[in-house]
Amino acid sequence: MSITCRPISAEQHLAFIDQRGSASFLQTPAWARVKSEWRGESVGFFDGDTLTGVGLILYRQLPKLKRFLAYLPEGPVLDWARPDITAHLAALIAHAKRNKAFAVRMGPTIVHRSWGPATIKAAIADEAVTRLSEVTPDDTSNVATRLRNQLLHEGWQTDETGHGFAAGQPMFNFQLPLRHADGTQKSEAELLKGMNQLWRRNIKKAEKEGVTVRTGNRDELADFHRIYLETAERDGFTGRSLGYFQTMWDELNAEDPDRMRLYLSEHVGDLVAATTMVRVGEHAWYSYGASTNAKREVRGSNAIQWRMIRDANDAGCAVYDLRGITEGVGADDPEIGLIQFKVGTGGEAVAYLGEWDHAINKPLHFAFNLYLSRR
């Protein structure tokens, strides 16, 4: 039978994700309500009457034209090993075209390459290496390689430079596996042993200094936001509004009461670090983090990460995801501190296939990319 793509209800969408075990939180129906400046649509892929995949499409209209970019951040949710993947993607393009899209953009969350902590540390120490992709990965997925070749053959386009975080979702991410190869959960002792000496020392120091970590409520998002803006100023990025985090909290937790959590790390009554964690099934994400300029020596950031890792592990998650990194490993790379902090957890750097575009209207797609490059 031919594969079709058509709108489905939020309930069907969530039921498929629950059955699958996990999907990116950017592919949940709730995320459309967080990104209210886009028009959201839940779609299903059908082989006859059988639901074989789902996706959240966000539509962004071009100025003055009734033409849209159809964007599936970290989606769609498909079994990428299926032999009929190209038929699924053709159905997606046809659906987007019916909805006046000038292009489809997607980001398959399939790990293509991964580098373990020893490989990353060696790359950082090697003066001749400036980017992670210059180093042979510890693992390469044949399924992802085949998918990449299929996409290129079908006319999809991507930017594989991997520099920075660009306009979409990062290609390179950092993940801490919480299970053994046989699927059993790791113990706290095993997770702690997997960390480097500095991380273990900092966790012990935070405990000795009397740092406590607790979960917060919606009202305390304001406290998180206060030190988040302090972090933004220190690290030179533009922070999001308090309203954005309140909307995230309301919409994600309306879908699942334990989808988003707030963590607060305190020392003698002072807030020293705060983070948000999002969980969908067996995948947990460290989504936003903040720390104060004061009391950095009490290591509140290490304490808060250790608490989130343990909570994700207790919830039976397979992965604790520390989200985006850049692949630069040179001593002078502006983001080298980020990967050094994350590698201390004992996790691995992973490269997804990146984001891919399929132009339905090539002149409009070209003009859109030109506009983005000049922003």
UniProtKB/TrEMBL annotation:
UniProt keywords, alphabetically: Acyltransferase, Cell shape, Cell wall biogenesis/degradation, Peptidoglycan synthesis, Transferase
Keyword Cell wall biogenesis/degradation tagged: yes
Family indicated by similarity: Belongs to the FemABX family.
InterPro entries: Acyl_CoA_acyltransferase, FEMABX, PG_Glycine_Bridge_Synth
Pfam families documented for this protein: FemAB
GO molecular function, one term: aminoacyltransferase activity
Designated name of the protein: Lipid II:glycine glycyltransferase (Peptidoglycan interpeptide bridge formation enzyme)
Record organism: Tessaracoccus bendigoensis DSM 12906
PANTHER family recorded: LIPID II:GLYCINE GLYCYLTRANSFERASE
GO biological processes: cell wall organization; peptidoglycan biosynthetic process; regulation of cell shape
